[in-house]
Amino acid sequence: MTTLRLRPEEPADVEPVRRVVAAAYDRPDAGAPPEVGLVDALRGSDAWLPGLSMVAEWGGEVVGYALLSRVRVDPAGWPALSLGPVAVAPHRQGIGLGTSVVQAVLDAATEFGESLVVVLGDPAFYRRFGFEPAARLRLTSPWSGLGDPWQALVLPPEVTGASAPPAGEVVFPAPWSRV
């Protein structure tokens, strides 16, 4: 029986994570997906948070990935997290690995006492975790104009001990400008 193992990324996972992200975001008419470079650039930045880069292993093979990195809400400078990229190897898509790895990284963020996560993605997928349109929380970003795919999740304050995040502009670290 093959088992799923969810765990924080380790140094030996760098290449397997690159392969999973590259395969998940592959565009036949383009070069290497920018999401691969984004993960590498975030690893070398202040936005990288150990323990909030999660892999899914299936039978010992890294087949899923989810990353939370540091962003902030201005003008208050409130620390928040951005979810992405999220990737599942094409040969393992459709069996719930994406849901599992996202839930694992959100659980880790909650345990670390984080209060807010933003994401740009499919509302139907992210709604299952409690994400809602970021506009409802009066959060803006370069992606606000895309409407409902720009989403936010307030992590449970009764668990995190954090107060409610302020409204404002979500500021992303420099690596995000290349995506």
The amount of beta strand, in percent, is 25-35%
User: Helices and strands, in N-to-C order?
Assistant: EHHEEEHEHEEEHE
How many domains, in number, for the residues? 1
Mean pLDDT: 93
Q: How many helices in DSSP terms?
A: 5
Q: CATH first level: which class?
A: Alpha Beta
CATH architecture: 3-Layer(aba) Sandwich
Percent helix, as a range, is 10-25%
Main sheet record: 9 strands, mixed
Q: Ends: how far apart?
A: 39 Å
Q: What would you report as the Rg, rounded to the nearest angstrom?
A: 16 Å
Number of strands: 9
Labels describing this entry:
single chain, Aminopeptidase, 5 helices, 9 strands, 30% strand, globular, Bact_Acetyltransf, acyltransferase
Could you characterize what this model shows?
Pfam families: Acetyltransf_1. Residues 4-160 form the N-acetyltransferase domain. There is one protein chain. This protein is an alpha+beta fold. The protein has one domain: 3-Layer(aba) Sandwich (Aminopeptidase). Helices cover 25% and strands 30% of the residues. It is built from 5 helices and 9 strands, in the order βααβββαβαβββαβ. The protein has helices spanning 14-24, 34-43, 97-111, 123-126, 157-160; strands at 4-8, 53-58, 61-74, 78-88, 116-120, 132-133, 139-140, 150-154, 168-171. Strands 1, 2, 3, 4, 5, 6, 7, 8 and 9 form a 9-stranded mixed sheet that branches. It is globular, with a radius of gyration of 16 Å. The chain starts with a strand and ends in an 8-residue tail after the last strand.
